[in-house]
Amino acid sequence: MAVDYTTHDGVAVITLNNPPVNGLGLSTRAGIVEGIERAQNDPAIKAIVLTGAGKAFSGGADITEFNTPKATQEPTLATVIKTVESSAKPVVAAIHSVAMGGGLELALGAHYRIAAPGAQIALPEVKLGILPGAGGTQRLPRAIGLEAALNMIVSGAPVPSEKLADSGLFDAVVDGDLAAAALAFARKVGAQQGPHPKVRDRKIEHPNAAGFIQFARNSVAAIAKNFPAPLKCIDAVEAGVQNGFDKGLAFERECFIALVQTPESRALRHAFFGERAASKIPDVPGDTPVRDIKQVAVIGAGTMGGGIAMNFINAGIPVTLLETKQEALERGLATIRKNYEATVRKGKLKPEALEERMALITPTLSYDDLKNADLIVEAVFEELGVKDQVFRRLDEVAKPGAILASNTSTLDVDKIAAFTKRPQDVVGMHFFSPANVMKLLEVVRGKETAKDVLATVMKLAKKIKKTAVVSGVCDGFIGNRMIEQYIRQALFMLEEGALPAQVDKAIEKFGFAMGPFRMSDLAGNDIGWAIRKRRYQEHPDMHYSKIADRLCEMGRFGQKTGGGWYDYKAGDRTAYPSPVVDDMIGAFSKETNAQRRKIGDEEIVERLVFALVNEGAKILEEGIASKASDIDMVYLTGYGFPLYRGGPMLYADTVGLYNVERAIRRYASRPNGDAWRLARSIAELAAQGRGFNG
Ligand code: 3HC
Ligand code: NAI
Fold first, then answer.
1. Where does the 3-hydroxyacyl-CoA dehydrogenase C-terminal domain start and stop, copy by copy (predicted)?
2. Which of 16, 46, 138, 687 has the fewest CB atoms within 10 Å of its CB?
3. What is the per-residue pLDDT across 330-364, written as a single tens digit (0 to 9) for each?
């Protein structure tokens, strides 16, 4: 039973009991209506308390029911709230921990609300691409005023209950025993004569509602570009202000039904569940005991090591930072300090907090200082020989049970594990640059990595606010293995007739934060060159365009050399199309006898994105990723894939795998078609009319 019903001396207590967050699924909704009716029919009951068991009052509508028949089956949330609101006996919502979305809307339907301090109060629907669909856009402005409500609805951000103590939302915010306070409050109001107050009957007072709404609309339009929900939130609030509660409610419902079916909402919900699903590893039970991580060490204080260290100290975990030379150590520390100083300048960190954080770092040149570390993350040069030396040394000094992690981006984690006598304790922790900023962490699972090591790293990732995704061992892991195919297509298209600016523009219009050529100029074209040189030896049969090598031979490594695929002016990161490069591209096409032709934006987007999808499908087939949503999380959090499209695999589902397959077969039959080897699973799923996500 998703709802408990108890009576306490004239008061009925209806307790939502649907773990983990008392989502308002069908059985919970039915339970509430049943409880209210039971209380009405019991003459001994004078008042009703509505509350939640466990760690929430309610986290809102059950998102897993969206777009299923259960979502619209009676009693709907609207019916539940109407039942609560029209109860002749007063209903008191007793709110603790979390009242979000439909949960807050339910509470707004009660006659009275009391809350414990520290409860998170929010209408976060907009983050799922929808709007509050059970009266939130109508009742919240009546409860707390137009401006405060619009802010909460459009941002979706939680507000702590104590901050709303004087807002008109709560009748009381009580310290101590909420259940006892709720019962006492219910007895008091139960003794009073009805009718009891309804939020819907309150007025929205504002000196210039129309002006404020217009201001809000302008501000939101500028930032919500590809997301329809925020503007709809404003429309719905406006409808209530202009036309009254009932018309506003009807309009809100209409908007909700339309928004829940949009691809943007599907993408946002996919990302919500994808993030949570990523932390679950199929063969590692959720209750696997984890190792205690109190002290971390980082080896190498370069670009990555410094950023990695910052993640831990930001979470209050002390870090020992090891380098080979004093100068390198000092340089690393200075960079970390500089980063914090920039944060202080932006007002996001107090100056004293800077010193507290710096004090959590113990710099050292000696491996002896790593003896107490529970986790050691290696971020030294990307050479197997150097990793060999470091891991052998770590094996000597690290305490038993310490986790030994490598931040390698291209090397074989199993080989690195084999440098030690404890391969079960070795794992890849592949951070992305800048490591203190980027959300993504690929956790690379070696052949022998122990399950509790994985469980520990996944838990730690949450603590340092990363989105961790497990990848098996393969060249490039999930993200870089896929991006290689994307870059390959980008380069072939230059040979075939496109120019860098055209490719970048097309994919940026699709929604990528940055196209492949601007990205490459930023990262440094020499990095890809070094990787390709290795590839030519390892995979002599693999067909690459050599056009990027030609650019590097011209010394055009990107922004850092003042020119790459584009020209750059000193002190200016704007990418200006480069006539020299365009000439080089034309000449290169001639040399390779490529027939230059006009390549349309649609082809550019398809070739780039389907290259990701095709490789992603192979990654799934090989078990390198355990689910399609993991791949999407990698691309959403590490590669600038547009959130409103939900990641490459969800996008492929949206396009339809039948269409993806046809396009890949078409490109495979054209020049440079040998780069397309259709993934078996795409054809299989397409034949069954299915997608990667079911
Ligand atoms: N429906 C279904 N499942 C939900 C859920 C919801 N509304 N909210 C959370 N869950 C699930 C999560 O998927 C997760 O499941 P798992 O354990 O199987 O992975 C579990 O509950 C715990 O979630 P978290 O890991 O996020 O737990 P936290 O304690 O960190 O956070 C929370 C709890 C603050 C409630 C957070 O889960 C959250 O922000 N949830 C989303 C809240 C939301 O968006 N509500 C609005 C829903 S839409 C709505 O109400 C429409 C209405 O207007 C008609
Ligand atoms: P870097 O060259 O900036 O830093 C490496 C640091 O390691 C230098 O400060 C060097 O002095 C130090 N070092 C070298 N040998 C050492 C040893 N034996 N003991 C202690 N310190 C030693 O390199 P970067 O970019 O930080 O890369 C480090 C690792 O992170 C590499 O494995 C790389 O592949 C990986 N990586 C790099 C990313 C990037 O964007 N730069 C992204 C993800 C992973």
1. 476-568, 604-685
2. 687
3. 999 999 999 999 999 999 999 999 999 999 999 99
